[in-house]
């Protein structure tokens, strides 16, 4: 199925793929009934505060150490489908600056982002933890790590990087997990299924388990659903989901991180990371 999808992607022009994705996203999203979005626990943030955190020189040394340690065993390219190296740096620096006690990650895949999250938490507070949820068993012998050609599972990489105690791996559809857990999280990172209908449901569920002053960070938020990189791809799901949420909830806002001080991918400094905040 994946092979067929990849062949279709390789053959069709990106404009046509973007159009098809947008039609599918709009149609699936419009068939969902409205959900509740309890924004009261969301932290109010502005771009200046985010930029200060990203540029904070105090985290540079810890970042360099983590990047070198991870690059030595995991590599530092995005060829395996994890978040790109520039976004890993942004994620690390945000967590270093925000210092959450508990993080929920949706979408473990090969664990690229998970390792940076775990190392950022450990650098601040060894008792802080990340729970990472994936619909697949990411540590299974035939998990995503194996299909992309890595030589270790995410758990094994975490053990090598001395941050396995920071991580709990959960295999579950993420909305089921969020609707059933008793735990509250200070920081939720959404990087799972990026379709509009999934993101709409994920944000509703994430707000319900957010601790006071909590933060929701999204990946693959393309402002206005427009192309951001030279590959011509436009991922529309997170943007369309947030547009609907904003139209139904006047106080919810989105803060795209925009251009980062360092490169992200395809020769760009642009990131698709965006923070959900409130007015
Ligand atoms: C883009 S990848 C995540 C990349 C990862 N953050 C990294 O840096 O390695 C998306 C992941 O979300 C998972 N996923 C898709 N739909 C999901 C769902 N409904 N619940 C939980 N995980 C899901 C996929 O199995 C896939 O591993």
Detail the topology: elements first, then pairings.
Elements: H1 2-11, H2 14-30, H3 47-55, H4 60-74, H5 85-98, E1 102-106, H6 112-124, E2 129-134, H7 144-147, H8 154-160, E3 167-171, H9 174-180, E4 185-190, H10 196-208, E5 210-218, H11 237-248, E6 252-256, E7 274-278
Parallel strand pairs: 1-2, 1-4, 2-3, 4-5
Antiparallel strand pairs: 5-7, 6-7
Helix pairs in contact: 2-10, 3-5, 4-6, 5-6, 9-10, 10-11
Written description of the protein model:
This protein has 279 residues and is α/β, with parallel strands linked by helices. The protein is built from eleven helices and seven strands. Helix 6 (112-124) links the parallel strand 1 (102-106) and strand 2 (129-134). The longest helix has 17 residues, at 14-30. 47% of the residues are buried. Bound molecules: S-adenosylmethionine. S-adenosylmethionine binds next to helix 6 and strand 2. S-adenosylmethionine is lined by residues 82-83, 106-113, 133-136, 144, 173-174, 191-193.
Keywords:
alpha/beta, Rossmann fold, 7-stranded mixed β-sheet, 43% helix, globular, binds S-adenosylmethionine
Task: Briefly say what this structure is.
Helix content is 43%, strand content 15%. It has helices at 2-11, 14-30, 47-55, 60-74, 85-98, 112-124, 144-147, 154-160, 174-180, 196-208, 237-248, and strands at residues 102-106, 129-134, 167-171, 185-190, 210-218, 252-256, 274-278. S-adenosylmethionine binds next to α6 and β2.
